[in-house]
Known about the structure:
With 695 residues, the protein is mainly beta. The chain has one domain (2-694): Beta Barrel (Maltoporin, Chain A), CATH 2.40.170. The chain is built from seven helices and 42 strands. The strands form eight sheets. The chain has a 23-stranded antiparallel β-sheet that branches. It is globular and about 65 Å long. The chain starts with a helix and ends with a strand.
Amino acid sequence: MKSHYLIVAALCAAAIPGYAADSTAPASELSPIVVTASRFKDRVDDKPVNMTVITGEDIRRSAAKTVPDILSEQAGIQIHDFFGNNAASTTVDLRGFGITGTQNTLILVDGRRIADNDLSGVQWSAFPLANVERIEIVRGGGSVLYGDGAVGGVINIITRSPFDTPGTASVRARVGSYGTTETGITAQYQNAHFGIGVTANNLETDGYRVNNQNRQTNASADVRMLTEGGEVAIKLATDHQGLRLPGARQVQPSTGVNQLVTDRRGAQTPLDYSQRNGNRMTIDWQQRVAGGDFNLGAGWRNKEQISYFDFGGFPDYRVADLDVWSFSPRMRWSPNLPGGTHTLVAGLDWYHWDYRLKRSNSTANIMSPYNVIDANQQNAGVYLHDTIKVSPRLTLTVGLRHERFKANAADSFDAAAPGGAFGSGAPAGSQNESEHAYEAGARYALTPALALIGKTARSFRFANVDEVYESSATFTNQFQFLRPQTAQHHELGVEWRQAGAWIRAALFEINVHDEIHLDAFTTGIGNTNLPPSRRRGLELETKWQASRALSLLGAYTYTDARFRSGVLPGGAFTQLNVDIGGKAVPLVPRHKLNLGASWAFTQNTRLSAMLAYTGEQFMDNDEGNTLGVKIPAYTVADLKLSHRQGDWTLSAVINNLFDRKYYNYAVRSQFVPDRFNAYPLPERNAGITAEYVFR
């Protein structure tokens, strides 16, 4: 495989216009991008990092409505959307992990992790695109700098600073298909030493499906105080969501059932719903000190989740409450060491989660739950990362991390509580683990415009509380603690930058050990550590400013994700001895292509278009690849027309222009051989947005 890396890299280099080993092409005229890949603001154009930065201008031009929408336009990223309803219940997968992509892709907001120690996933709708300054995508293992869960890579959402557009305020309103209305306000104020920005957003929609109403409100404040040689930033945010859950559409050819055709927008679960309330606060103090920069960060988050599932008259009502505290001091300095110019980053990450889940059979009985699960988790990691400028052409990086993980869990059970007659409680348990990560990378500039990039790394992730709370073969609750998952990464890429143009190609391989994954067929196992698996792939990205008025972009991803060996035992009511060796990982399309264009046909009017193709993929729970039906390939197109007149900006968006009937998540039944459930996504839909800026 390594020889293939070298061959393809050479071919890519040869295909780039004007390339020659002794080329004297002028250096790239593209402005260096300020990023946080090193956890400090830095330039990325001379670092061995496979990074894409989605700028604020990219966001404004896009027809995307949510952060996952615009992420799906990038190489190496696949999303699975259950409802197409403001990113509710949407997962983001970087580099082919399928349904566990959420646990293997680390999501940050302003450098702080928002992934939790449960399976609830990121509340994407809490981060409206209007409040996003840029998004940074760092592909490949990022565990040295960020620790647990950064296996496929890291996505960092940078929110707007009050110093970006000082002294302005704006109001915006959107109306769209399916009874959608959205309103938002932003305001900034700043002087020489102080800045404050506030945002508020409210969305209400009936949703594409029956019983899929969504009500979402968000508010945030960002306070910055400039000091001599530094800055103090305090950020506060709150979000609230009420979401109705329509369930799936069932297909079973043997009985002639196909609700995707007969009742595509119907609801299987007309009584189900969820609510989610979140609050967060962070403080960062960054100061220039003798020899370097020091950053002291601390934060707190709270999340309450309420859910009701009717289960055909056997209801399950849950209230989960989670508090997270974090502390992350770090330092950057440039010591006088041999071998070149060194930039060292060292730091500590400490996170503590307190989790409580109460289960009952109704809202009226939740004060007398039959199960109360209490769990706490603590992660503490230390790291050291060095960037070495060996010569004007060669830059190296090396890094190490050691992290300790400690979890305790208990389940209090009350058989006398309403609904508790047939339940059970899990014996208390605990787990202590430690893991390490490393990385080594190199970037060599063949010419001022062309560079080769290589990286090898080790990453890890620990199982969360939802993944270890399972039932035994006799259906009694228990905590099934799992071994940490580890992965080895290898990557080789080529990058070409020239005035108005940029191309990157990268080959990657990820070998995963003890992968944490659901065994849907074997009673009493639930999530387990699977035998080894592998992801291999090719990513191509390009941006080209063809003229002052026309810009083009493209992204292609080829991913081959496979289990290398293993047999799932199965059971009497499912399949027996499900062989997964050599089989494709479900929910990972082999091919994905995005093509975009943006044309300013007048000074104030712009038309943008995006065409997205996603290849077929095996369904969730089809690890044996035996269902015989896959999620079909699909192609969707989006258009956006925007016009600015003075302080007004008007835009019209059409999503799924060609009215395709498609879905990108489906799950096979482990009990009925030819049955599966699919989650259809919206057909052609449109929206109009008006924004006014007060200056």
